Amino acid sequence: MLTNIALVIALVMTVYLFAYSYIEALKISNSEEQVYGGTFIFSSIMAFVFSGLTYLFI
């Protein structure tokens, strides 16, 4: 039961972080001034980490 809950949490976090990194990429691409890309990089990396956890809990 606990692995099913972990699977759902990892899946939701994966989808959320991929969507958030996509929105951050759109903000960065539309900006004409200097941008901070740390949020985009961190959310992209963590999305891949949580997608790996999703694969682990299947």
Structure description:
This protein has 58 residues and is mostly helical. The protein is 84% helix and 0% strand. The chain contains two helices and no strands. The protein has helices at 2-30, 38-57. The model has no long low-confidence stretch (mean pLDDT 94).
Rg of Cα set: 14 Å
The computed structural class is: mainly alpha
Count of strand segments: 0
Strand content: under 5%
Ranges where pLDDT stays below 50 over 5 or more residues in a row are none
Termini, distance in Å? 12 Å
Order of SSEs? HH
- Shape annotation: elongated
Biggest sheet features: none
SS element count, helices = 2
Work out the helicity level. Answer: over 70%
Mean pLDDT: 94
Chain-wise SSE layout:
Layout lengths: L1 H29 L7 H20 L1
Please name the defining characteristics of this protein.
58 residues; mainly alpha
